[in-house]
Each structure stands twice: as structure tokens, then as C-alpha cells.
Specification:
This protein has 228 residues and is α/β, with parallel strands linked by helices. The protein is built from nine helices and seven strands; from the N terminus they run βαβαβααββααβααβα. α2 links the parallel β2 (58-64) and β3. The termini are far apart.
Length: 228
């Protein structure tokens, strides 16, 4: 086995979906959230909905393989009115529906915009996947990748396109670091080495700040999208 080589990843769907609707108005900003199973994607989506819903018209599309588990969680938590939450059952590995064949997700996104009326923001949550999970640029305009400290403090160093290329990396559950032996400073250094100038946010939804920094990043992306 030869390990002295550089791994490259294929570019897929290199053209973003058109930002304008047929009537010339700007469509909703689409932000994808991906990451491994149990990293806290759904909890982050729920927290973002609570933080943004009073000032931003938003909706959510979740992805699960054979269930509506994540959508049902958001509905039970009442983070948005039920008509603003929809689910895609991928029937295969989650990355397939967010990167390779995005038709079901595109349909869900477009149906939300048609049925609810003008939306400013749509969050598309991937089902739990691995470090190679990325969204097609034909589906979302920006990507957040969520990992957690309980998964090991070597995850940023391992890289993979989810960690290295996402517009925002969220290192979640920092409150668990003392209990699982994760070194947050090491994770910060490794993330900087992998991502260079791309932003990284350390987050604990149990803390007073919670999702505030991620919500501020989303607001900044939305402001840039609206004014473009």
C-alpha cells in the first residue's frame, strides 16, 4: 500500500443554482449543514431556528435514509411552524442526495418557496455521514460542517473535504472536552492548518452563548446574499 500520495476529491456540480427566480426576485439563501452521525447537526439547526425565526423568514429540509427522524424532532421542539419543515428520505447514503443526485432536495426546497411564499433562508440538513460529505453547489450556496469533540480531537487533523472546504467548520459539544480527553487548543491548531483562513467556531449549545456565533455567521451570509 502506498501512502505517500496526495488525495484529491472530484468537483461536482460546479455551477450554483440561479440566484434569481423567474420573476426576477432573489430566491432564498440555501445553507447546508453536514457532518458525522451524532455531531449535533439537528440540535444546531433547532438552535438556529430559535435564534433567527423572529427576524428571518426561514424553512428547513432534513435528510434521513429511511425515516423522518430529524424532521420529527424539529416538529416536536416546535422550532418553526410545521409547514416550514419538510423531510427527504434518501433511501441511500446521505451524501448521494446532497451531492450526487440532488433532485429530491431541490424539489423540496422549491416546494417550500412556492407553498410558503417569499423565504429569506432555507437550511438543508444532511443525514449523518463521514468526513467526505459535501453538498452540491447546485443545491446550496454555503456549507457548514459540524464535528464534535467526543468524536476525537484528531478529526480536524484527519481533514477530508467536509473539514477542509466547508465555508464554516463548527466544533461542537466543547463542554464535553474535559470528560473525553479532547484538547481544544490542539483542535484549533489543526483546524487552522487544514482550513487556513476559512472560519472555525467552537460551540457548546449548553453554554450561555449557545448558537450565537453561528447565527451571527448565518446573518452575515444572508446580508451579503441580499445585497449582492
Amino acid at each position: 500500500m502506498h501512502l505517500d500520495h496526495t488525495t484529491t476529491y472530484p468537483e461536482r456540480h460546479t455551477h450554483s443554482a440561479e440566484p434569481l427566480r423567474a420573476d426576477g426576485t432573489r430566491r432564498a439563501l440555501r445553507i447546508g449543514l453536514g457532518g458525522p452521525v451524532g455531531s449535533g447537526k439537528t440540535a444546531t439547526v433547532a438552535a438556529l431556528c430559535r435564534a433567527l425565526r423572529d427576524s428571518v423568514s426561514l424553512a428547513v429540509v432534513t435528510n434521513d435514509i429511511y425515516t423522518r427522524e430529524d424532521a420529527d424532532f424539529l416538529l416536536r421542539e416546535a422550532v418553526l411552524p410545521p409547514e416550514r419543515i419538510t423531510a427527504v428520505e434518501t433511501g441511500a447514503c446521505p451524501h448521494t442526495a446532497i451531492r450526487d443526485d440532488i433532485s429530491a432536495n431541490l424539489e423540496a426546497v422549491e416546494d417550500l418557496e412556492d407553498e410558503i411564499g417569499p423565504l429569506q433562508l432555507i437550511l438543508v440538513e444532511s443525514g449523518g455521514d463521514n468526513l467526505t460529505a459535501t453538498f452540491s453547489k447546485g443545491l446550496v450556496d454555503a456549507q457548514i460542517f459540524v464535528i464534535d469533540v467526543a468524536g476525537g480531537d484528531d478529526i480536524p487533523r484527519k481533514g477530508g473535504p467536509g473539514v477542509t472546504t466547508a465555508d464554516l467548520l463548527v466544533i461542537n459539544k466543547t463542554d464535553l472536552a474535559p470528560h473525553v480527553g479532547s484538547d481544544l487548543q490542539r483542535m484549533a491548531r489543526d483546524a487552522k492548518e487544514q482550513r487556513h483562513e476559512l472560519p472555525v467556531i467552537f460551540q457548546s449549545l449548553r453554554s450561555e452563548r449557545g448558537v450565537a456565533e453561528v447565527a451571527a455567521w448565518v446573518r452575515a451570509r444572508l446580508a451579503a446574499w441580499t445585497s449582492a
